[in-house]
Each structure stands twice: as C-alpha cells, then as structure tokens.
Amino acid sequence: MITERDQIQWQPISMLSTVACFIDRNIDNATEHVANLRYFHQRPYGTLDEHTVTRFIRLITTDFEYLDIFTEQLRRWKTECLAQPLRQEITRLEQQLPRLRALLTEAMSLARDMEERTIEKVMAKSHLQLGLEALLRTRKG
Questions:
Q1: Are 111 and 49 a contacting pair, CB within 8 Å?
Q2: How many Cα atoms sit within 13 Å of 122 on the Cβ side?
Q3: Taking the CB of residue 53, how many other CB atoms lie within 10 A of it?
Q4: Which domains does the chain have, with CATH numbers?
Q5: pTM of the entire structure?
Q6: Is the distance from CB of 75 to CB of 19 less than 8 angstroms?
Q7: Beta-carbon neighbour count of residue 70 at 10 Å?
C-alpha cells in the first residue's frame, strides 16, 4: 500500500515502454479478475475462501493506487517536448486508463460482494438457513 510517507519517483520519458507494459498488463489482469469474479459470483453459494477474496481486494486496491500515479506520470510527460510517436503512445495510454478504472471498479464491487459469500460464511450457516435462502432464490428466478 502506498502511503504519504512513500516518495513517488517520477520517471523519465525513457521509461515510457515500461509504464506502457505495466498499464497494458494491468488491463489484462483486471479483465481476468473480472471474468473470474463474475464466474464465482453467479454461483448460489460462496466457492471462494476468505483468504482468496481478501487477496483479490488487496490486489485491486494496489492497482487503484497505481492508476492515480500513472495518470499523473502521463500528465507530466505530456508537458515535455516529445516526438510524435511518444506523444501518440501517451495518448493511447491515457485512453486506456478509464477502461482500467472501470474494470477495477467492477472487480472491487464483485469482490466486496463475495466477502459475504465465502466458503467459511456458508459453512457457518445452519441447514435451515441455507434451505430458506435456496427457496428465496428460486422464487426470485
């Protein structure tokens, strides 16, 4: 977790390809997280353990923190006198950030919902409570 005490090291433009790779990889990872969480979210009962859900939330939180740093880094680079290909890459990355933010937001929402449906929470319920929940689900569907 990034704290106020952490000093952010703004990077020179020579690090653009590294930052681009990191942003593109984060989009791929977030897309995979959303797909996995959607799959488990559709299940009637929690099929993920608390440790896994907590890990998802921690990863997503860290990605959100880096998103703000990348936004500022790209803004800083844009103020420099750059060759057109570098400027185009910065523009491409800036256009990717809202997509990444949307994916992270959805992933966090799904993960937070899964916190209440972990294996441990399901196992703590009585058979009667589980039966009533199943009946209520069938009435809604």
A1: no
A2: 17
A3: 24
A4: 15-140 (1.20.58)
A5: 0.81
A6: no
A7: 20
Q: What are the tens digits of pLDDT across the range 72-128?
A: 999 999 999 999 999 999 999 999 999 999 999 999 999 998 888 887 877 788 888
Residue 141 has pLDDT above 60, yes or no: no
Report which DSSP code applies to 20.
H
What is the spatial distance between Cα 83 and Cα 93, in angstroms, rounded to a whole number?
16
Predicted confidence (pLDDT) per residue in 16-53, tens digit: 999 999 999 999 999 999 999 999 888 766 678 899 99
Q: SS3 of 47, please?
A: coil
In the block, which residue shows the tokens 């859900």? 53
Helix (H, G, I), strand (E, B) or coil at 81: coil
Write the DSSP assignment of 93-109 as a string of letters: HHHHHHHHHHHHHHHHH
With tokens 């989009």, the residue in question is 27
Cα gap 129→141, rounded to integer Å: 19
pLDDT at position 127, please? 83
